[in-house]
Structure formats: structure tokens, C-alpha cells
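pinging the channel bc i need a second pair of eyes. not urgent but kinda urgent?? the chain im working w is below, pasted from the shared doc
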Amino acid sequence: MKPYIAQIRSNLRLMGRDRSVLFFSYLFPLVFFFPFAQMMGGRQSPAAMAQVISMVVIIGVLGNGFFGAGMRAVQDRETNVLRRFKVAPVGPAPIIVASMASGLVSYFPLIVLLFALARIIYHMPVPANLLSILLFVCIAVVAFRSMGMIVAAVVNSAQEAAILTQTLYIPMLFLSGATFPVSVMPIWVQTVAQFLPATYLYQGMQSIMIGGQTLAANLLPIVSLLITMCVALTVGVKLFRWEKEEKISGRAKLWIIAVLAPFLLMGVYQARTRENIQRSKILARKEQRNRTLLFNNVRILVGAGPVIANGAVLVKDGKIAEVFDNPPSDTNSLQAEVIDQSGKTLMPGLTDMHVHIGAFGGVYQDARKYADPNADKRKLAAYLYSGVTAVRSTGDWLNNSLKLKRLIESGEYLGAEFFACGPLFTAPGGHPMELLSFLPASMRKEGEEQFVRLPKDAAQGRAQVDDLKKTGVDGVKAVLEAGNSVVGSFPRLDTGVYDAVISEAAKDNLPSATHTGQASDVKDAADAGTNSVEHGSGIDLIPLATFAEMKAKGIAYDPTASVFEAMLDVHAANPEPLNRSLVQQTAPKELLADTRAMLEKRRPDSKAPILQRWVALSNQNLLNAYRAGVMLIVGSDAGNMLVVHGPTVQHEMELWVKAGIPPAVAIRAATYNAAKVLRAEDRIGSIQRGRDATFILLDGDPLEDISNAERISLVVFRGERIWRSELFDQDKE
């Protein structure tokens, strides 16, 4: 052990006297630290500051390993320094180990210095898992110094060393994330990066610093680094040469492959699974969401409170940190990026409480379009583009709904927040079972399993609700309808079974929604205590006593005016809903063209006058509910023909206002009320301190003209400014 300690001490003394070592170890990294911190807005974002530290540390680790260890060892051999050790009682192992240990000791103070500067100058909080970060960097330093030493072992000259070092160093520097964010690179470049050890170093640091993970969550790259270190140490001792006259064969350079083998294997695995690529995307999104922003000089529609004529909203770490009744006079003290939005209106993101994400709202001539695996994700992107930041699915395939919910929650994909309410409890043969008849026979069984629940009795209904609770759904939906003259008649769910479903949902703390077709259905739903009534009735007027009961029980009313209008437009062969600007911006072009062509082939039929009366009755029921003080929520029933996913809420609110509902009431229904029914009002639906920073900015005041809700200037989702034009490029490679 004495030779090892003696060699380490000798190396440290030499390093302390070498000005070039001191410069490149401590001053040179700061050349990158301060410009990166200023350029990336370190004061406005702890996550950005963490990224700066990661970048500077990686640049330092690569330089420490390949130049501080590898090139230095070659120079010592070239200048006959190692020859002097040959006659001393010391072998190759102490020299190599001492180089790795002394390099770590000399580098460690820089890590501490970077965190100290980040805390003192840029006010970055000290990470709670600082010990994990320090240990991870220490492992990386010795591993990369071992890589540098293996380079020194397999080259015959300084020129060869320079070529091989640059061959390894340059790709790791530019493709790992140390200089450019990996997530913005083309997929094929990101895939190539998975073969580089520095990529795992960068991602490990990001995961620990930004993702809040521990060493255990990064066990695979840590083990790979340690294996690389052990292999490099073993090979380095075996191939060690004391004098420059000693040559080694060209095949010896293949030992580099052996040293990097763990990362080559991981690269092959990642090229197949792309797990790390998705992980990088999520970490980049967390960094964006952790910035500090001040939206200044804005009119604020709070959602559940008075309007602030000219104020400001401070966003920090993805949350609303402060709401100012007047623009702050001293913005510098907030350490935020100031975004002046004079003349604009800031309001909560909109919520569509009734969508069917698996349906398209139109038709395709090419049936293969319906099987597009990215179609549902794109619909959620269309909602976010339109300022609809949350949607409630009220009838879709269960597994797909849960998958979409997890996808948005993880940050892997940018789209509207997804609340899964379903499958639908109905009677055998009842609505919407008739829709399954349009599916191929091979898919009908899957449809029954994923789309509906058909309880035979109250006990089975309660058990099915309990089972759904375990899957992680956000609510359940039941159907009370016996049909009508337009769609035909079908069996209605037994009220005893229905009551059991609703009561069990309440017991399980699951919000319940009920599809109704006429006034008697609404009465039964109100008696059972459902949380929301969907559609109400377009066939007859709902008694005022029923609305009074709904108000007393806090039951929300969702009239879905859009779908009544759409049914009329289909039977009247009217393509006007497809002409709205935001619809044309968000909907697939082929869907709009094929749907328009379908309508052109139709002629107005005898059902159009009936549906015209339905629209009038639906509007009257909405007005009566409002006058009775019933809580209103906005849902469009998107996915039905001519109700295309995207700017659905804006059109629904416009229909309400035309029917006589005040704009302020419609806006509250689409924001705070919706969040309350979802039981998410502590996060979304209002502009209040502590809520998610999810809101939209409009070029106009929707209280004056509800159509201004479509004039979207900016969408902010969980603190991230959304580049709307890029939302539809997420699945492109």
C-alpha cells in the first residue's frame, strides 16, 4: 500500500506546483460556467443552473480524463519521466491508481466551488440529494481517467494519442448534452449518443439534480462506469510501458472497444427501446417548467374571483408563486424573466368536460387513418394548441385512456391533461352498445371489455366500480337513456343497478357522470346524487324542481350544446363547423377534406326540423339551469361527427352566449367549475397562488366578446411556455 500512497502524494505535490494544472482544473471551467449561467438564465431557474453545473462538470471530467490523465501519461513516457520509475521499487499499478486518485482529489474542490458559486451568485438551492451528486461525479472522474489511461496504454506516440483522444473526446463533448441539449437533436443523433459514456454521465447528473433521483435510480450507468474502470485498470497494467522505445501492435487499440463494451451494449439496448431518449425529453421538460417568469401588465380573469384590470402573475417551479393586483414596481428583486403582455388577457386554461378521444369528429376515406397509433396523442396536442389544457374522457377504451393519462403526466408528450372517466355503465344492448356493431367482429369483444360495463345486478355494479378504482381512473360514467325518434330505442339501465354504481363511486371517492336523454333521466340522476349530468335533454323541458334538486346537491350540468348543433348540421349537410380558423389550424387536413366531401354528397333530410327543435329545447334547459343557480360545466362531446378535437370549448362557450348565458358564467364553467367537478381545483381552474402555472393569454377580452377566447397569444402549461407550432411535430423523427 505504501507505493500507492507515496505515488499519490508525489502527484498531488506536482499538481500543486504546476500552474497549467491549476488553470485548467479551476479557472478554465469558470470560462464556461459564467457565460452558460447568464445565457441560460441561471437566476430565473434552479433547473437551468443545475444544467449549467452538469455541462461544466462534464466538460471538466472529459478534460480531466482524456487530457489530464491520458495525454499527461503519454507526455511522461515521451519525455522519459516514466523511465525513472522503472528502476524504483514500484510497478505500473501504483502509477495508474495514483493518477486516478490524485486526479479525483484535485478535481473535487471544483465541484464544491461550482455549487458554492451557484448558491451565492445565482441563488440556486442546495440540492437535497447533494451527496448522491458528489458520489456520482467521483465515480465518473475515476472512470474517465481510467479511459484516458487506456488511451495512453495503446498508443505509440503523442501524435497517435492526440488523434485517438480527439476521436473519443469530440463526440462525447458535443453529443452527450454537455454543450447542446440532447433533446433538440434529431432522433438518429440521439440514438448515436446512446453509445457514448458521457451521455450517461450527463443524463445521470440531470436525473439526480433536476429529477430528484438517487444513485439507486442510476445504478446501470454507475455499474457500467465501474466495470469500465476495472477493465481499463486491468488492461492498463497489462499494456503499461515505461519507455517510448517500447512499441505496441496496432491490434492493441482494440482494447478500447473492450473498455467501452458496457456502453456499446447499453447503446444497442437503447437504440431498440429509446428509453433514455424519452428520459432526456422528460428531464428537458422539467428544466423548462422550473423557470421563474413574470407575466406583467396583464388583465387577469381569475376564474373564481374578481377581474384584475392590470396586474401580474409570477411563475416559479411550475406553480403560480404570486398574483399581483398591480404590476410590481421592482421586478429585479423577483429574479424572474419579465414578459410584458400589455393589452392581453391572462386566464386559466380551458377544460372540456366531455370528449371521446378515440373518435375523430369526422371521416377518412382511407380507413388506415383510423389505425394511426399517434392519432390520440395528436388530438391532445390539438387541444393544448387551442388553449384547452385539460379534457375529461367520458367513454373510451380503458387501457388506452390510462396510457394517455400516464403519457401526459410523465412529461414525455405535450398535450392537454387527460382525465379518464369510464368505461360506461349501461344495460346489455343499451347505449352506446350500438356503436360496437360498427366494429369488426374480432374487435367487439375487446370493445365490451374496454368500453363498457354491463352489471347484471347492484352487487356486480359495485364490484365493477371498485375494480375501476384500482386501475387509477379519475371517475366513472353511467348511461340513463332509452333512445329517441332519431337514434332509435334501446334498453335502459335498471335504476337499482344505477343507484348502486353512483353510491359506490361516492364511497370510493370517484366523481360520477351520467349520460341522460330526457327529463326523466335527469330526475333519476339527480335522485341518485351523481356529480354531473351530461347532455340533459333535448327532447323535453327539465322541470324546475329537478334543477332545484341539482342545485341543492351540488350536481353540475353539462349541456353539450356543440353535439346538438353538430347533429343538426350533419342532417342539414352543413359544413360550416369545419370553417372555423382554429379548427383548420388544428385538425388533420385530410380529415377536414374527407368530411367536407362526405357532407357534399348528403342532402338535408327530414330529421333536420326535429333536431332544430332539439337545439332550441337544449338551449332553454341550459338557460333554466343557469337561472336556477345550478353549477354549469362546459363539455362538447368531441369525437362525434363535426365536433373535431381542438378548440371545442371556445365554440361551446359561443353557443352558450348566443343562448343567453353571460360570458363570465361560461368562462367560469370552463375553468373553475370544471376543475371543481374533476376535484382538481387545488391545482387548476383558477389564477391563484399555489396553483399549477397552467393558463392562456389572449389578444382581447372574452368578457367583452366571447370569440376573443380563440385569439390565443400564448399557452403556458405547468410553467412551460408552449411553442404551439411545434406541438404537431412531436412524433416526427
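so The chain has a mean pLDDT of 90. and The first strand starts at residue 293 and ends at 300. — does that match what u expected or am i reading it wrong
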